[in-house]
């Protein structure tokens, strides 16, 4: 059932967070669905303001851990792993929350206090599988491969569209990095939407208005919006 799918990867059966299904799919890509496995509980003392987690989601109520910063508080908590779905925080079910809401809740936890996470790890049924032949490889998942791509949107149907230009691809990658720096999330679809919003804008004020109209729920800080505008400009000027 779709509700059991935690996330999907392109061209690999492994829970590789660098191969996550994003907003674009090459027409020759293979998609692997990773489903819910074992549940686990962990209690952590928040001894640092920063937990060291990067959160993303699958767009349908499943926020999961995309990255754990090496040497961070959560890196020392070995039960918490990349790919884990965060189901509850201190008993509050967050399965219907977007990744930025979950990241905000974790950030707002009081320093010096214990907190409890209930997690669901992806099923590891395919960990021991190897490619049938090492002589051939699957095509790499790149949004620049080919002339057309299948574009997935949170709202509305999927559409076949022209690939993002090389400039837009670089801007999307940089904006995705800025999302992690400012908000502790990674989301290529969101980054692509932000780059699209700035495509025909002449200044940061116009860009800020466009973001507010399309992505107002995120309440992006002004400094972040300015840096995103700068990244789009850098890509257009060939500085990325």
TrEMBL record:
Residues 41-108 form the PDZ domain. InterPro entries: GH2_GIPC, GIPC1-3_GH1, GIPC1/2/3, PDZ, PDZ_sf. Belongs to the GIPC family. This is GIPC1 protein. The gene is Gipc1.
